[in-house]
Amino acid sequence: MAIITLTTDFGEKDYFVGAIKGAVYSELESARIVDISHLISPFNITEAAYIIKNAYKSFPKGTIHLIGIDAELTPENRHIALLLDGHYFICADNGIMCLLTSEIIPEKIVEINIHDNIQSNFPVLDVFVKAAAHIARGGTLEVIGKPIQQIRQIKDVSPVINNERNQIIGSVLYIDNYGNVVTNISRKLFEEVGKGRPFQLLARNYKFTKINERYSDAINFSLEKAKREEDGKKLAVFNTAGYIELAIYKSNPLTVGGANTLFGLNFRDTVTLFFA
Predict the structure, then answer these.
(1) For strand 3-8 and strand 64-68, is the pairing parallel, antiparallel, or unpaired?
(2) What is the pLDDT of residues 239-272, one digit of tens each?
(3) Quick check: helix, strand or coil at residue 127?
């Protein structure tokens, strides 16, 4: 029984997601559909890439991931299907796979070429669903596309290291539901460049000299609750995805605000690490 995941920027108001699910069931009544997210910011390739990278690995091998972000077919935005790490991905070639392919080499990539047999201006509904159904039935990628070697990369998702290797210039990669600010500086890069040296992490007017393993590490639980510095506690942490994240302890964006508003940080804003 095929597992098909859906990640889109279609939101929850319109009929699009429901129509896609209906099309999947029309092709494969036994399919199991899992929604990863339909609240990606419109056309935000980097945000989608971060979510896909960190969600797909929880699914079993052979899962088929449909990604409906900026999926209109144009001469500069072809459709592709990949076999990577035992998973199948169907999406537009717009850089959305860059975070994955920078770490894992795809086993196979094809440019989907079944469009002539499908009349549609909604490719996720028709082209992507047809491709997913073919794969789910045991079909090969070569039947729905021609093999290619390269796909589009997004350069600004990677931090910049200076020649002296004492500075990493990163940026805001993602802002989560709590308003926490995820940078594109990974723990791996931090450790490779830092080599245990003292550091300062600068974000706007805020400075951090420690990165916690857990959010609660920033709180001194040996003190009685009334004396702890909890409300509005600013901290840096290695999040579960392995990236440096800036946060406010137990923040609520709807009341006191999140790290993004309190620090004044938005998508792609600069965050810099200096090593002694």
Answers:
(1) parallel
(2) 999 999 999 988 878 777 889 998 999 999 999 9
(3) helix
